[in-house]
C-alpha cells in the first residue's frame, strides 16, 4: 500500500534521508523510530507530498505522490505532531469542512462524524471554537477528522501528544482496530512502549538510513538477543546502550 523506493532528501549539502526503500503492505501497522534528527519527519513529509525528494519515489495505493498527488492524497490521511486547524471554527464545523474537502455524501459524513465524536469523547465540545480546546482535545479532534473519510493509508507523527491515559487507550484501540480492518498505518514516535504495543513491524532510522527493520522477534534475532524490550535494543542500536 505504501511503496518507497530509494527515497533521498538533501537540505543544502546535508543528506537528511539516504536512499530509503520500504514496502508497507495493506493493513500493516508500521512504526518509524529514530533519535532526534534521524530523518523521520523528513520521510513523512516526502510520503505526504509536502516535500519533493531529490531522488526516489513514493507510491500510495499505486499512485505516485509527485505524479498523481490528488489520487494519492484522496487515499490518505496525515496527522502532524502539531495539528493545524482553522481556529475560529467549532469542532463540528471543522469536521464538516473536512467532509466537504473530501466531497463526502452529507448524510454519510454526518453519521460517521457523530460516531467519531462519540468514540473520541468530542460530542460535548462539538460547538466550541477550536482555539478554546485543550491540547489533548485538539489531538483527538485531529485524529477523528483524519479518520472521517475512511483513509486507506493513515500517517501520524507522535499520536499520543497531549493525551491522558484514558484517551491514549481510546486512540490506540481505534487505530489498531482500523489497521486490522485494512487501514495501513505509518506512525512515527519516540514512545517505544507504544511502538512495541501497536506495531506489526518497526523501522529504526538513524542518520537518514534504516538501520533495523522487522517485527519485534525479527529485531531480537538481528541483535542476537532473546526477550529484550524495544528500549534496550533501540539504545544498543543507536549507540547509547
Ligand atoms: N528545512 C530544513 N532545512 C535544513 N535542515 C533540515 C530541515 N528540516 C530538517 N533538517 C535537518 O534534517 C535532519 C532530519 O530532520 P527531521 O526533522 O527529519 O528528523 P526527525 O527524525 O523527525 O527528528 P525529531 O525526532 O527531532 O523530530 C536534522 O538534522 C534536521 O536538522
Automatic annotation (TrEMBL):
Claim: Protein transport is one of the keywords in the record: no
Keywords: ATP-binding, Nucleotide-binding, Transport
Matches recorded under PROSITE patterns: ABC_TRANSPORTER_2 (PS50893)
Signal peptide stretch: none
Molecular functions (GO terms): ATP binding; ATP hydrolysis activity
Domain ABC transporter: 2-232
Name of this protein: ABC transporter ATP-binding protein
